[in-house]
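Annotators were shown the component list below and the corresponding predicted structure, then asked to write short factual statements about the assembly.
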Amino acid sequence: MIESPLTRVLLRVATWLVLAFIYVPLAVIVLYSFNASRTLNWPIDELTLKWWGKAIDNPGVRDALWTSVKAGLGATLIALVLGTLASLAVSRYDFFGRNTISFLLLLPIALPGIVTGMALNATFNTAGITLGLFTVIVGHATFCIVLVYNNALARLRRTSRTFEEASSDLGADTWQTFRRVTLPQLASAMLAGCLLAFALSFDEVIVTTFTIGADQTLPIWILANLARPNQLPIVNVVAVAVIVLSVIPVWLATKLSAETTAPGTVAREVVEP
Amino acid sequence: MSTSTPGLPVPRRSVGRRLSAYLFRHRWLQLGGLLAGPIGWLAIAYLGSLVVLFLASFWRLDTFSGKVVHEYGLQNYEELVTNPVYRTITLRTVGMAAAVTVACAAIAFPIAYYMARLATPRVRRALIIAVLMPLWASYLVKVYAWQILFQEGGMIDWALSPIGLRSPFEISGTAEWKQYAALWITFVYLWLPYMILPIYAGLERIQPSLLEASSDLGGRAGTTFRRVVLPLVFPAVVAGSIFTFSLTLGDYIAPQLVSSTQFIGNVVYANVGVANNLPFAAAYATVPVLIMTIYLLGAKRAGAFEHV
Amino acid sequence: MSERKRRFGVWAALALLVAALAVIAAGCGGDDEGGGGTQIEGLGSTLDEIKEAAKTEGQVDLIAWAGYVEDGSTDPKVDWVTPFEEATGCQVNTKLGNTSDEMVTLMRTGNYDSVSASGDATLRLIAGGDVAPVNTDLTPNYADVFEGLKDQPHNSVDGQMYGVPHGRGANLLMWRTDIVDPAPDSWSVVFDPNSPYKGKVTAYDSPIYIADAALYLKATQPDLGIDNVYELDDAQFQAAVDLLKQQKAIVGKYWSLYTDEQKAFTSGDSVVGTTWQVIQNLLAAEKVATEVVLPKEGATGWSDTWMVSATSKHPNCTYLWMDHIISPTANAQVAEWFGEAPSNAKSCDETSDPNHCTTYHADDEEYFSQVAYWATPEADCGDDRGEVCKDYSEWVTAWTEIKG
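Structure shown to annotators:
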């Protein structure tokens, strides 16, 4: 340990302060989901559970939630396939343009969402493709690929090639090697990447605004209803519900990438036997 | 040709095996097959779209019907360059993005350091979950929560009133710096997890033996930190900054909800989503694209791509 | 293949791909010039056919101003949508538009059936071929609409109606009665650079607000010669823009979402500014002390028309909706809720406040000659000045400059 005791105490205090900073606004949302008044008055006069009941009954929320789930699953699936393929290529082969691939895959997530959204919108309109769930999935998948790619790549860099070589020496063809040797080692990293991709797609609003047409995902529904006075408390309820429900996938993702962390992963120097 | 171990059956020469053997001999084909999907997708769905957008920036809007006319000209770029308001807005946005990035790095570092080096594995796991959870809370609702906090007579005013102070933040009004302050806090809040996690990962990557060696060579805590830890973790910080910078650069929702000022995103959105002037919006959108591309190239130089 | 050749091959392939996309992009588009004037597909030719066909359509997708399409979710007593849904079997889906610009953009996507367009959107939509002419024989309630709203420049072309009139009203001045004293009667309270309410003034966030500045100048600087506030030549336009830039120093927030203004007035972030009657109604319901007035310089306003999309997927339900919203009962309800003059003359007998029509000057054409309905600024001034006026795109650019 190189840190002095004072430093350690200060760091602990800093950690608590940052956690407080992170959770106070969330506490505000939880509080307002119980606020009886429709307006955002402060201080709050009365607490009630009625908004929770109304949220469950609201068909707009249910439809939007379902659309979000569909879009997330579609985008995650595509991102999974493409991201894994790209990571295999980059980690196991040496070719011209290898370094550019990381740059290229990062671009959709690094360039502002409004640019991506506008570009996709312009292209779809020019090509005459109707905006809807399909276009949303295309948009989301594009910036989700890099999340799976990074996780898979980090894992592949940590796993030795010798296993695959041994597998071919023992007579397995490419597919068998992939299925029996590579995939099991990759599985948890792929899953972690998928969880991240789903989370990102689920909460994305800017690219979605430009690619969704008349339909609604949950963030679009929230945006539309932040503007309606009577729906506002329901929005708070929905937000709280999403936060609470998200504990499960977050916990899962943490467990899976035990030595690696999101949103990116780092190839840890492992002392291999 | 395959050598078979005595006692084991010889594998059948199925289509799968033949294909696999062929690919093995033509490695470039195997590589091409792997890359075709991702690169094809990116090239067509993404780069192609960007090209279309770039082309659109040279078109113009028919003034009466409001339809886009597919004729090429530099009028949009001329407007961008000659009218000073766009420079002002760009500088404002870039300044805010830089301020947010610096603040995020400063705030994220202590907690990331604690997580990486001082926390027990159980506490570390709990902290990772604690930091990741807000990413799942809807971005919109988080911005909205800050609007509630900042509004006139809101919680911050209420919390400060016992000491007789007014909130230094505002979401509307004529003191623009107060709105910038409110927006700055909101952005820092929103993107903090994106900075904490890469820094944590970067710090975790530093092998303890390096730090021990440094102290063995006579370096005290401060020196080790400055000379060993910081240079090693710097690429991770840059990696996190890619997100904080880029997300702030293009955002238009937070400025709308938590301030009354215009940023690049607002102007672009007003032109494309409201005034239906796609060509002009596309032209102005090339500005953040250019800025981010330069930033990314710099980040790549700094080695950040290993840490994203 | 040598390294260099392979490298060249990869770059060449990529370049070819990008070039191909560029060619496609340049080639495509620039089509779809639907010059309106064609009958919509699938529309029945008699009322009975329409009613039958509507049952199979089952829904209608509307773009509307907030407060125009109430289904009881804002206030259970305010609902003229559910009776319509029950009678016709057409489920109503609404997307709120905050400004005319947004509505035009949304309508252009082709995903909606109808829009409640103000005068600054109608002509753009007609010229762009996004809306189809309306056969008013198939909307029987049209017969009872005030004559002053029929065959107007903003809702018809060469005697052919392009929609059914919804109602009309003015943009009013609102203030917090417990904060603003004395009660204002002039727009000067929002334009005065030394206003005591500096930082708490609000204005409508749309380029069309430039017309409000022009209206104020029309009364205070008559030598500018402003007559039509939407047709401003260079000098007049510059004066209006300068006034607005000066106003920016006292404006706290520009509002486009009506709930933003509602929140701002509730919390006190705004205390005086432009409003719609419906916002004041909502504030009154929440016990916030406000008042409205039509200032002495006059006001800008709107005369809205329900139009039908040229590519409507549910034309029959759309026609039934249009007929319903201008029927005496529904039109009276929306006019009272929103705070505007109804379009149907028979609605005056159906309003719960018997003086509603008098208050809102429903059949007072002289009054409405003082209200400058939102219209699309065009380069052609429409008078002897010629084509020197500023068109809408210049208004948009100026608006960005004004907000800074």
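Statements collected:
1. Chain C is about 40% helix and 15% strand.
2. Chain C touches chain A through 29 residues (CB under 8 Å).
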